[in-house]
Amino acid sequence: MKYINFSQLRSFHAVSKTGSITQASKLLKVSQPTITKQIQLLEEFYSINLINRHARGISLTDLGIKLYEITTKILELEENALDLFSSNLNVHEGNLITGTSGSYYIIKLIKEFKKSHPKIKLDIISSNSNDILDKIYNYEIDIGVIGKPLNKNFKSNIFSIPYLKQNIVIIAGKGHKFYGKKSLNINELNGCDFINREPGSET
């Protein structure tokens, strides 16, 4: 069974398209002797004549014209395949479900993401950190932005990267012992009353 050498076809197509071996070598970024040799091998292997060579350049034989029509279709299909691979690697449209434990975390991220991917629809779900992690693990959402680092022993199929650091601030009214203090030692918080969010929140 005979197989077609695509390097030879590509060289033939480039010469046919540009009208010269010099321009074909520039297009394919290979030497002129390489282009010439590839076409010669193609012609010799099938005992055919594809190109007429003359002082003013080259012209295609009747067989060469027919082959050029075929190589044009082949290379168009190759481009379609490459586009398919690229679209699979670089998603340009669809839906992305994002979970966050605080919308203020992701406002800047959303702005930058929409600028780069205007056709992707974003759905935002707000919940506490533990609930967001559970939703990721159960494939209910695609990504999450939460307020705590993952434990090293947490489910191994979830990948995380640090996004930002925040300072913890104590809010106290006038008359409170912490009022006016620039900083606190964590031990000073022992015995203090706090207003907390629901269990599972890191706030």
Strand-and-helix sequence, N→C? HHHEEHEHEHE
- The level of helicity is 40-55%
Largest sheet: 3 strands, parallel
- Under CATH, the homologous superfamily of the largest domain reads Periplasmic binding protein-like II
Q: What is the domain total for the residues? A: 2
> Strands across the major sheet, in which order?
4-3-5
Q: For the record, what CATH class of the largest domain applies?
A: Alpha Beta
Helical stretch count? 6
What percent of residues are in strands?
Answer: 5-15%
Q: Architecture of the largest domain, according to CATH? A: 3-Layer(aba) Sandwich
Shape: rod-shaped
How far is the N terminus from the C terminus?
70 Å
Computed over alpha carbons, the radius of gyration is 32 Å
Broad structural category = alpha/beta
Quantity of strands, as a count:
5
Structural write-up:
The protein has 203 residues and is α/β, with parallel strands linked by helices. The chain folds into two domains: 6-85, Winged helix-like DNA-binding domain superfamily/Winged helix DNA-binding domain (Arc Repressor Mutant, subunit A), CATH 1.10.10; 92-184, Periplasmic binding protein-like II (D-Maltodextrin-Binding Protein, domain 2, 3-Layer(aba) Sandwich), CATH 3.40.190. 41% of the residues lie in helices and 12% in strands. The chain is built from six helices and five strands; from the N terminus they run αααββαβαβαβ. The protein has a three-stranded parallel sheet, covered by helices on one side. A two-stranded antiparallel sheet has the order 1-2. The longest helix is centred in the middle third of the chain and has 28 residues, at 62-89. It is rod-shaped and about 100 Å long. The N and C termini lie far apart (70 Å). The mean pLDDT is 82.
